[in-house]
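Changelog-adjacent note: as of this version, every example in the card shows the full chain rather than a window. The one below runs 689 residues end to end.
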Amino acid sequence: MKPLSLLIEILIILGVIIKNIEAEKHSKKQTERNATTQVSANELKQFLSHILERRKLIKVIYQRENALGKKKIQRKLRIKGIQNKDLSKRNKNHLRKQAKKNFTDEGDQLFKTGIKILQQSKNQKQKAEAYVFFAKAADMGNLKAMEKMADALLFGNFGMQNITAAIQLYESLAKEGSYKAQNALGFLSSYGIGMEYNQAKALIYYTFGSAGGSMMSQMILGYRYLSGINVLQNCEVALNHYKKVADYIADKLEKSEGIPVEKVRLTERPENLSSNNEILDWDIYQYYKFLAERGDVQIQVSLGQLHLIGRKGLDQDYYKALYYFLKAAKAGSANAMAFIGKMYLEGNVAAPQNNATAFKYFSMAASKGNAIGLHGLGLLYFYGKGVPVNYAEALKYFQKAAEKGWPNAQFQLGFMYYSGSGVWKDYKLAFKYFYLASQSGQPLAIYYLAKMYATGRGVLRSCRTAVELYKGVCELGHWAEKFLTAYFAYKDGDIDSSLVQYALLAEMGYEVAQSNSAFILESKKAKILEKEKMYPMALLLWNRAAIQGNAFARVKIGDYHYYGYGTKKDYQTAATHYSIAADKYHSAQAMFNLAYMYEHGLGITKDIHLARRLYDMAAQSSPDAHIPVFFALMKLETVHLLRDILFFNQFTMRWKWMKLDNTLGPYWDLFVIGLIVAVLIFLLRNRYG
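Full-length structure tokens:
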């Protein structure tokens, strides 16, 4: 059983957080409205005292009831003269089971209340209140609530990160058979966060987690077998793991429960990071709202879409989505009409499911030749929503929408030919339409393509291709929400919380998370790992990201071997990685670094002509490289000229060029660059003076 003192600490922290949030908002009405859900630190302490008193009382009642029960039984036995030792035991067991059931039911109810509040929450205060209910339910032994609290302690929800306490809860849960706890302990063991770094142990935890039903463990094992991480590389085993997760995700996608994934790269420049395309800046959002209110139809539709699915860091809000779509539809936007039809077809709190209304708006959009409207009408006829099932009509509308390039319509055509719905089965045509839709990122099309490659149906079987496609589908799971929370934690300066979340996603095989985790570790700002472990772990993650095609990560590996970060200095290996980045990804930085190595003969044969060529290629590949390349070439040409002059004089033939290192130091080339810059500044001043 978990330590009670731990839960006391959690509840007190939550109480303080709620009070702080309340103080910021200072609204009397808000305070009165939420009076029933506000829990101060004192109230939490009183609540815990009540729990302790209640437990003592229950214990006393048990003892009294057992004593009374024994007396009654003994009296009856004396009267009847019957000895029955099992009767008292049965009564005792019955009382225990009844009390335990009442206790469990109360814990379940508290957990459900917390979940309801969490699902309806729109701000941090409401989310914190949900965790108060989870803490109470956890105190009553509710395993799901304990899992929620353990996750909050691990990932630092509401600033309450406590790795040691999280591990205690996870270990307690693991003994109870919690697959989520098994997965978490595997993750912590694989990084050595709060636990001993032990890959073998991590693998055991992941295996138990996947056996228990953890989709995250399945995905981690799939990635490990695909890449050969601490296991023998095995495509078929990886395929098996990824398929299970992809089947789960595809089922969610068919119910329109997809998760929008906003992947922000921390390796971007700070100025780009602050105005990242993946996250909509609050000021820009306010400007868009202003334009929408002024009647900008395109902005209205865009805001409606963002709120419909919760994109760019905005919360999902069906009321706002419908509001903007209706404004745009009144102005004649066919896209807005189609999206209103979609909302009524799927049904939500703002637009309850209504086939007739959906048909009306889809028809309005389709009459304007809108692809989304045509696709919507096709869906109504295909599934018989408000109209009789008519595959011929559905096929007609899907074809029209597909011709206009709408990927969902292309997928539906592929599905009709794949399943033989209203048409003859034709795997070749199914593959064609699935492929077309997949080029636009349609997730279900990617899923069915993976299925075809895995089974060899309609296409030559390819395990590797199937795994790569399944992996793409798996990365749309609900766990991808952590990309947003990790990014916001990083922006708020909560580095440890951000690192833990990115590291878990990195373990699951997300390339962006691997490079982000490595970037944070490289900065050495995190406190949850020892300093000496950060560079080796960062190198490991850069390597995994590079294998998945990240050019920046490939250059980073070269840097680590060049400078000896987390590994021994190895110029030859550094040059190899720079060469890969330059040849495969045309990285200007890699070309520049490689040119420098050729210029000085570091790890490779010295070649001035090749160095010149690589410097020129770097300048051509990126405008940012023009100035560094200019100075590098100036230095190279100046040094080359000096060398020619020195060697031209027969009396200076004995001079050794390497003596420059002894006289001016190993960084004499930087001195020469500085001298050139000074001369250029002097000449420019004289010219314009």
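Structural remarks: Residues 25-62, 271-276, 650-655 have pLDDT under 50 and may be disordered.
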